[in-house]
Amino acid sequence: MKQLTKAEEEIMQILWQLTEGNVAGIMEELPEPKPAYNTVSTIVRILESKDFVGHRKVGKGYIYFPLVAKETYSNQSMNKLMDNYFNGSFKSMVSFFMKNNDLDTKDLEAILKEINKDT
User: Which of 2, 35, 87, 104 has its CA 20 to 30 A from that of 96?
Assistant: First the structure.
């Protein structure tokens, strides 16, 4: 799966939240200062070319929707981060975040409980 640029990921975050929308609807969700309409439209077309977004014609316009689930992209991104920066070691990654984010053992225990609840 291809990686997204910051701008592409921002648009995908909005589409995941909306589940579908036209360019104007996507623009409404963007923070100020908003990019130009043509900029957002171009990013959406790039996302289509990367197979992250699909569309259907409605009247004279298009409605865009995600083809890749947020969870799928998140998992792929986290695995890439772990591979590239922590030599594929989940333990090293967790240790890094604990040290650099002032997590204590109570926080880690709470995280582990949350993980175990889902499995």
Answer: 2
